[in-house]
Design goal:
- This protein has 90 residues and is α+β, with helices and mostly antiparallel strands.
- The chain has three helices and five strands; from the N terminus they run βββββααα.
- The strands form two sheets. Strands 4-3-5 form a three-stranded antiparallel beta sheet. The chain has a two-stranded antiparallel ribbon with strand order 1-2.
- A hairpin with a 6-residue loop joins β1 and β2.
- α1 packs antiparallel against α3.
- The radius of gyration is 12 Å and the shape is globular.
- The termini are far apart.
């Protein structure tokens, strides 16, 4: 039986499989983007595909800790817009 890697949501703290989570990525250039494929290079943090988890992570600065950088408000707003339009999990 193959071991399935688990990742922790930075919002709610639940351990889930990678397929259930969305990867937020800090690229080598320092930009913050949603990584829908989960294969791009850079430091990643994971979130459940729910807006509540995103808001918890934003409030607790969980994404900033995981990505080891400060995240500007505009980037949070862009990520929130992408999550609410439903493009993130596809």
């Amino acid at each position: 039986m193959k071991k399935i890697p688990l990742r922790k949501c930075t919002g709610c703290g639940e351990m889930k499989t990678k397929k259930e989570l969305i990867r937020v990525l800090k690229t080598p250039e320092g930009t913050i983007v949603l990584d829908v494929t989960g294969k791009k290079n850079g430091r990643g943090a994971y979130l459940c595909n729910q807006i509540e988890c995103f808001r918890k992570a934003r409030k607790s600065k969980g994404l900033e800790r995981s990505l080891e950088c400060a995240i500007p408000t505009e980037v949070y707003e862009t990520l929130e817009k992408e999550l609410t339009t439903g493009n993130a999990g596809e």
